[in-house]
Amino acid sequence: MQAKTVRDYIRTIPDFPHKGILFRDVTTLFADARGMRLCVDQLLDPFAGARIDAVAGLEARGFILGGAIAHQLGCGFVPIRKKGKLPGPTWEQAYDLEYGTATLEVHRDALVPGARVLMVDDLLATGGTARAGLTLLGRLGAEVVGCAFVVDLPELGGRAALDATGLPVHTLCAFEGT
Question: Is 7 considered catalytic here?
Fold first, then answer.
């Protein structure tokens, strides 16, 4: 019997959140102990041995992954949240989504300048959320060591946009279609 891959734990839900969309649902991956362990281990693998001071997780599923990865690394966790969710003074960055626009925020004191950060999220689609996260980390003076995602949707161009930054970009699996 062949071992399961991360992709095997992810279900596809048609027509969510809009007709014609094939939603890649990672909650089934997170719900399975073996799947979650496999995911975290594989997200960390290319960064093994690198000095990482903090993991930045993009709202919302990036929090789940980011917390688990930060725990494994023994480092801090920085949430990058949707506008209005953080209580202290923040930096904000607007960005485009596949379905509209949104704004992300990070606490202005979340990191010390020069902190080495790994940014994580569950899905890389157009790259808008990720680019907004990178902009916020840049405002904090962070040195981003790389970006890690569970799922890549290459047809939407996010991977190409992030590759153009020169940062290491690591994804665990790709799905065709939107």
Answer: no
